[in-house]
Amino acid sequence: MEVLSLAWRTDLARLAQSGSEVEHHPAYVVVRTPQNPTFRWGNFVLLRRTPLLRDLPGLAARVETLLPGLGHHAVGIDDPSAGREDVDRLRQPGWRVAVDTVLTADRVLPPRQLQRSAVVRALSGDRDWSQKVALDLACAEGAGPDYELFATRRAAAERAAVESRHGAWFGAFDGDRLLAGLGIFCAGDGLARFQTVQTHPEARRRGLAQALLHHAGTHALGELGARTLVLVADPDHHALDLYLGAGFVRTERQVSAECLRTPTRR
Prior knowledge:
The chain is α+β, with helices and mostly antiparallel strands. It has helices at about 5-15, 60-65, 85-90, 125-140, 145-165, 210-220, 240-245; strands at about 20-25, 30, 45, 70-75, 95-105, 120, 165-175, 175-190, 190-200, 230-235, 250-260.
């Protein structure tokens, strides 16, 4: 299946780089991440269009057939122009629907105020990557007891992608302590995708995320040869203003739906 959405196209590229299995069919794509089965957006089905109303009752069974034995059913919709009617049709009992904002930029504006409280550099070595897991845990509000294993597995996959030269993971460090971080990965066709922008709760409002965005964006447009930077954000999160202020513009919407059978992770 030819994937149209910038968000899903870059998602699939990033997942493949991290060791996930991406299986294309004429009308859908199946993504499997056997090494991290509780990673719901590493184990999902991407559909070309929103299912018709008559097909929705069988959606969970269809996903279960393609991805058996998981604690969740997750479905993406590869339709950047999906309207409100399509989204509302997905809001069936037991399903949670998300409509995220897809942002793009051909450059990232520098921070208005240069922060000197931390050093921005690429993660390197076991200590840095273990701190990346610790940062995940510090930023995961309300996470369950299984989250640390999920975060450890995800970090291992991200590190493998970095060490295979598909991208980079940058951190803002105060001495040896990681305070904030994000990833940037090539996705083909001149695209580069930002991943997991995080700042430790104790280090927010210091301009660290702005400094990281600018540093990583400059790296992607230079060293990685990207022409377009892609970032996906929750439209109701305060970080959206940060991205818009850094020069990103709203380009698409990314529609997804999930039915949780047991607690799992994004």
